[in-house]
Amino acid sequence: MNRVIILGAGAAPGVPSINSGWGKCDPKNPKNYRTRTSTFIQYNGTSILIDTNPDINRQLIHHQICQFDALLYTHPHADHIHGIDDMRGVNRVTHQNLNFYCGAKTAQYIKHNFSYLLSKPGTVHDVVHMPSLVPNIIKANHPFKIKNLDIMPIKILKHCPESMGYIFAGGDIVYIPDFKEIAQSAYERITKRPRLLVLPLTTPWRQITHAGLDDVLQVILRINPERAVINHMASECDYDWVNKMTPDNVEPAYDGMEINLD
Ligand SMILES: [Zn+2]
What we know:
By secondary structure, the protein is an alpha/beta fold. The protein is 20% helix and 26% strand.
């Protein structure tokens, strides 16, 4: 089975949020109910989780996902990492370490804030009491492989000190996390028309560290995928409104959205 599941489609506060409630989102549309952003990819016989947001526990249980081949992180922000302790459940199923892959600064953030869960290859923690995770440091533009899946990390600019996107299977799937700009070198790594591009919008307007809808549409135009899905939306982004503002091959994500790539 080749598929991508948008486990959560919300920006850091979720929708509704503590501070803004439903904002501009129509509360009657269930697609506007958004937990935070993580994505599950099953492709070429390999399964990958991208980011452990604070809602990851419920998301994995809902989709009956209890193990995968590797965990990738995009950047060191709380809404993408702080569900990391729930990886203990995965360790309890596999009785093995879980390998995660990220840039050096993200690894440093995890080491600083969650040092108790880091393990070494060959040594598995007592997973009843704590998770057992092994860091693997990767660099933008240096490809690596998980089982049968080729992965190219790409450089994302001006969101935070380090943000990484990923190209899977030579360009079939492109995943871009929170961004303000995308490095030229990242575009150069996309050498074929992707079947699927997943990328975030946070608010319709551009912020200091986030692209706005115009920027997102420009990136889509430049990468020219068969299909683009927009995730990481805050309460300013109503589902129907985003859908109306985007071309036919572009659609807003919603929690639990499954994209079949067979
Ligand atoms: Zn975020």
